[in-house]
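JOB MANIFEST
job_type = single_chain_structure
chain_count = 1
residues = 104
[input]
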Amino acid sequence: MIHAFGYFEKPIYLNLAFLQESNAISLNCVRNYNNFIFNTVLIRYVEANKSDIAWNYNIDRKWFKKYYDLFNSEELNNDAQARGTKYYSAKEAYDELRDYYATA
């Protein structure tokens, strides 16, 4: 509820810790949504082009790398590496996609 003076009922105090936590939450949301869109686009591509996919990275690299590069962020990869968090190279992401379809 906004009062007549234009203030929220409970004021928000912006300090460094709050801003850092807000940034981390926002970044995680964006990463998760980005991963969801990437996976959805790849699944649609694979379903529409099953007969054209060789499931060999050297052959499929051209189409796969186009999508990977669209969603990949070197800055976020470097940040993940600095934190010791796993990130996927194009080859590792392709191998995981291939393994998913091999077991599906």
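[summary]
Helices lie at 16-48, 57-71, 74-83, 90-103.
Residues 16-103 form one domain.
exit_status = 0
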